[in-house]
Amino acid sequence: MIRYILIGIGIFALIPIAWFAWWLLNPLFTDTIVEEDFPIPARAAVPEGMTLEDFPNAARAMVPEDMTLEEVEVQMGVAAAIDAPEIAQAMPAMSPSVAVNAVKAAGDFRDADSFHKGSGNAVIYEIAPSQRILRLEDFMVTNGPDLRVLLVNAPNPEGHSDLSDAGYVELGKLKGNIGSQNYDIPANFDLAEAQSVVIYCYPFRVVFSVATLATTEG
């Protein structure tokens, strides 16, 4: 009888161990795919009857006197979302300038080692004054348990000690190991401290992939 009781206790004790092992190892054999659109900070409301000829004067009237040219260009990035086809068709010619000014830093993901692999682009955009996002584009990384997205104040961190020494800000849990996705950057975070983007596994304290960032403005 005691033997059967001990066997039952042993089986019962193995249940949480088996669940924990499944939680740790299951992501290694599955993929989580996400595809998020590029965020638009606002949607312009165009008065009914406004024509292309009316738009320049109306736009000037809506711009605050203290707004800089760069801020105006960033705000114009929402033009593709407006509900006036005639005006929207005139906007693509402006988009290259807007896109260049909106990109603050960018880099390519690379493998951390022969097992932890990553690829794709990490791009920091300013989509509105004081509103920045990190966007992972054409992204792929080896899946794992509890992966996090970090902005790190070091260009090539290789492990937990490098992260601790350099300092970092966490942007949240990785939404998916495959696909384009967006992460908000805290408004009080100094982008000068963002030297790399790191995909980091908390349970094992392992770096899965790193993208060293290069700034696009002086």
Describe the structure.
- The protein is of the alpha+beta class.
- Among the domains are: 36 residues, no CATH class; 113 residues.
- Helix content is 27%, strand content 29%.
- It is built from 6 helices and 9 strands.
- Strands 1, 2, 3, 4, 5, 6, 7, 8 and 9 form a 9-stranded antiparallel sheet that branches.
- Strand 2 and strand 3 form a beta hairpin.
- The longest helix is centred in the N-terminal third of the chain and has 24 residues.
- The chain is globular, with a radius of gyration of 23 Å.
- About 12% of the residues have low confidence.
Any chance you could write out the topology, listing elements then pairs?
Blueprint: H1 2-25, H2 55-62, H3 69-75, H4 85-88, H5 95-102, E1 103-111, E2 118-128, E3 131-141, E4 147-152, H6 160-166, E5 168-173, E6 181-185, E7 196-201, E8 206-212, E9 214-215
Order of helices and strands: HHHHHEEEEHEEEEE
Number of strands: 9
- Give me the oligomer status: single chain
Low-confidence stretches: 18-24, 78-84, 90-101
Structural class label: alpha+beta
Using only CA atoms, what is the Rg?
Answer: 23 Å
**What percent of residues adopt helix (DSSP H or I)?**
25-40%
How many helical stretches?
6
Tell me, briefly, the overall form.
Answer: globular
Cα end-to-end separation: 78 Å
Largest sheet geometry: 9 strands, antiparallel
Q: If you average the pLDDT, what whole number results?
A: 77
Beta-strand residue percentage: 25-35%
